Amino acid sequence: MPAARHERHEDDAVGGVTLSALVAAGESSASDMVSDALERLDRTEPDIRAWVRVDRDGALRAARQLDAAPTAGLLRGIPFGVKDIIDVRGLPTECGSPLRQGRVAESDAPLITRLRQLGAIPLGKTVTTEFAYFSPGPTRNPHNLAHTPGGSSSGSAAAVAAGVVPLALGSQTAGSLTRPAAYCGVAGFVAPVGGPLDTTGFVGLAHSLDAVGLITPTVADLRLAYLALTGAARLPDPPEPPTHMRLAVWSGTELGEVEADMQAALIRTAERAVANGAVLVDVDLSARTPGLVEAHATVMAYEAACALAAEAATPERLSTPLSELLAQGRGITVAQYQQALSIAERERAGMLDLLSDVDAILGPAALGPAPRGLTATGSPVLSRPWQLLGLPTLTVPGHRNSQGLPLGLQLIGHPNRLERLFAAGCAMEQAHPAGASPLPSAV
Asked: Quick one: pLDDT at residue 246?
């Protein structure tokens, strides 16, 4: 591979058409859209390695059937990727582990069934870290092949960033979707834990924390996908621009070393929001989030040890990080687990009160840009508090550092006020669209 191409994959990264544009145009046949996606996949996959299995014949067959049908759903012909912990009928669900190799799903997860009803076509399965934890697969970041795409929804984020598909499914238990979306410069939505998007048919890690995730090129695309999945029958109008938006700004610095470029992106976004009429609400979250991170780690380890008890019987076939997580979980008492759940319940009530007064909490989606190297996926610490509380989050792309690596921000919202969360995300995205000038080098 030529050195320049190794350092930056700029010709293909974020090169596809947005989901909203494809739906609005409605002119291409399903067969054309799937063929175009397969062509882009063939061009990018040797470098990016986002896909574990491509169902070429199945996708093209489904496209031909749609082209012959008199009617079709809102997402007619849209090809999408599926994280390889989610069941797709007739395809293996291997979870990035040799323990699940060749296990073919007999039925679709309900989320896949719903997307098929909407006319969308699964193109194949995308790479996941081992059982959606930390041990990475082969995927590389489309913005710089020497950097991680994040995890665990690594293949889904990279496939969208490379322009192969305008929609990919992921999941989040800690920072499994927010972080790769941020690192790959795409938009991500983590649905509220417990619904309305169903995790049935997912191989779970921690049932109190697992949530459906969507990845698209833009926040506007996320809104379209979510509304389609929850019942919209036509292309929705753009969200009403928020007036007098109320934002709580959270630095995240109490949880880790947030890099200077990320802090600058957060400050720039908050300043621009104020210039556009937003009101910043003074809220200090720094005393609350460390306890939430600790409780999240307890719940995740305990529930993972229960969920993967059978797999733990063959530790030699598990990665060291996953074996250590399961051992940690086995050492947690029922009383400690229940105490962590009690903390989550109490703190969720207080956070919902705050989110009834503000449109969203704005903070960094990760400690910085994607770290260099492919042996780790970065820290999920800035997502842990919100995942423990089961809150919906948006990853908003747009900023880049001086090396051209994406810097994603996150918006945390109220589960019963998702339209306001999407409206806030769309406004921020429009104020600083992807491809805008990078931040100057941090001093």
From this structure: 96
Q: What is the mean pLDDT of residues 106-112?
A: 98
Residues 6 or more apart whose Cβ sits within 8 Å of residue 356: 414, 417
Query: How would residue 71 be classed by pLDDT, with cut points 50, 70 and 90?
Result: confident
| 35 has catalytic annotation | no
Q: Considering 176, 208, 319, 379, which one is annotated as catalytic?
A: 176
Considering 31, 97, 152, 153, which one is annotated as catalytic? Answer: 152
Which of 183-187, 240-244, 381-385, 404-408 is predicted least confidently? 240-244
Q: What is the 3-state secondary structure (H, E, C) of the chain?
A: CCHHHHHCCCCCCCCCCCHHHHHHHCCCCHHHHHHHHHHHHHHHHHHHCCEEEECHHHHHHHHHHHHHCCCCCCCCCCEEEEECCECCCCCECCCCCHHHCCCECCCCCHHHHHHHHCCCEEEEEECCCHHHCCCCCCCCECCECCECCCCCCHHHHHHHHCCCCCCEEEEECCCCCHHHHHHHCCEEEECCCCCCCCCCCECCCCCCCCEEEEEECCHHHHHHHHHHHCCCCCCCCCCCCCCCCEEEECCCCCCCCCCHHHHHHHHHHHHHHHHCCCEEECCCCCCCHHHHHHHHHHHHHHHHHHHCHHHHCCHHHCCHHHHHHHHHHHCCCHHHHHHHHHHHHHHHHHHHHHHCCCCEEEEECCCCCCCEECCCCCCCCCCHHHHHCCCCEEEEEEEECCCCCEEEEEEECCCCCHHHHHHHHHHHHHHCCCCCCCCCCCC
CB atoms closer than 10 angstroms to residue 402: 11
pLDDT at 225: 98
Query: How long, in residues, is the chain?
Result: 443
Mean pLDDT computed over every residue of the chain: 94
pLDDT band of residue 441 (cuts 50, 70, 90) is low
Q: Spell out the domains of the chain, with CATH numbers in brackets.
A: 3-282+354-431 (3.90.1300.10), 289-342 (no CATH)
CA contacts within 13 A on the Cβ side of 184: 40
**pLDDT above 50 for 234:** yes
pLDDT at 318: 97
- Residues β-bridged to residue 51: 126
Instruction: Give the β-pairing of 211-216 and 168-172.
Output: antiparallel
Arithmetic mean of pLDDT, 29-33: 96
Can 125 be counted among the known catalytic residues? no
Residue 152 known to be catalytic: yes
The catalytic position among 20, 31, 83, 154 is 83
